[in-house]
Design brief:
Elements lengths: L4 H16 L9 E5 L5 H8 L4 E6 L15 E3 L12
Parallel strand pairs: 1-2, 2-3
Helix pairs in contact: 1-2
């Protein structure tokens, strides 16, 4: 497990918002980290026991921690994205 205090704070913040509205996520809940960037928030949810956490972005910025982690991320280039910024 890689400690990422900033990502942990963001996930705790989201959890607090949900709890303040009486919503408690079950471990089997589906979580989509849309615009996941480096995937750090997706990893925090996975490490917190949410096995259905997935990251999605238009470009792959994620350094997978293990090959099997690839099943939790999807990257689709935006149509019309300049080739210079596509990977």
């Amino acid at each position: 497990m890689i400690e990422d205090e900033s990502a942990q704070q963001v996930v705790a913040f989201y959890d607090a918002i949900l709890k303040s509205r009486g919503i408690r996520l079950a471990p089997e809940s589906m979580i989509l980290d849309y615009g996941c960037g480096s995937g750090r928030h997706t990893y925090e949810y996975l490490e917190a026991g949410f096995g259905n956490a997935f990251g999605y972005d238009i470009q792959n910025y994620v350094a997978l921690r293990a090959p099997a982690d690839g099943e939790h991320f999807r990257f689709d280039p935006c149509p019309g994205m300049p080739a210079a910024i596509r990977r």
